Amino acid sequence: MNTALRITAFTAGLAAAFGLALGVGHATGSDPAPKPAAEHAGHDAGHDGHAGHDTGGGPAAEHLPGGLQISERGYTLSVDNPFVTAGSPTDLRFRILGADGKPVTAYQQQHEKELHLIVAPRDLSTFQHLHPTLTADGTWSAPTAVPAAGEYRVFADFTPTGAGEGLTLGADLHAAGDLRPAPLPETGRTVTVDGYTVTLGGDLTPGRSNHLTLNVSRDGAPVTDLQPYLGAYGHLVALRAGDLAYLHVHPDTTTPGPEIGFTTTAPSGGSYRLFLDFQHQNTVHTAAFTVTADGTAAPAAPATEEPAADHQH
User: Which of 309, 247, 301, 307 is nearest to 272 (CA)?
Assistant: First the structure.
């Protein structure tokens, strides 16, 4: 994920201020895997703290958030079968194709993994952070199951060996089934997940570097013995509602809680979903927040129990 509000970009991309477009109807169509484009020079920043990638398309493209493109800098995300059935286990298989059209087989580790895979629906109601396995022929695979029908976005966050900077590519995944569109989840500054209470501090101001804090407690007591997860005491992914732009976030914290800090820049105003992964007592938990990039949180609501996110280790 280029990972952690790399959360660079983790669910996109996990965009118009992370405004969110709802998936409508049954699964139809897919992102055709385009022929790899000629490689472009330049990339905004590394995995831990950039707001976009340089696609070589001029000033506007230089600040494009990650995850919005299926092909970038000569690399293409090719999903074997973008059609799945909601609620049914599936082996999600994909490849990263190089400029020569051949699968990439060598990657640099970022946050303890060679590739981070994020799966999120267009309504950002759920979030899966998967760690697929790689075969010798360049095929990645990850067992998963999407919980509901609709349109999903798959984000591959990786750095090919010798490529220098990492990048995040995104592709559509279509889940057939009984579709029940839902609005963007509303949260206040505090959510409860798996018995833990997580409180968000700080604001998102478009176009400016922002410092966010997340404070973790349990049964009214601060949690001061968080365990490292993916090389840090917290991992944050931010997705912009509407287009699911994937925002990478830079972790600032070097102590095991209770406060976890991140630095990020929102590319625009609008609504964003923030997904915080943290590990305690050998179990990874995910707290999700809805915020707006005008400096305020979404409409206040009582502490809510967030659905458990899926992880693979």
Answer: 247
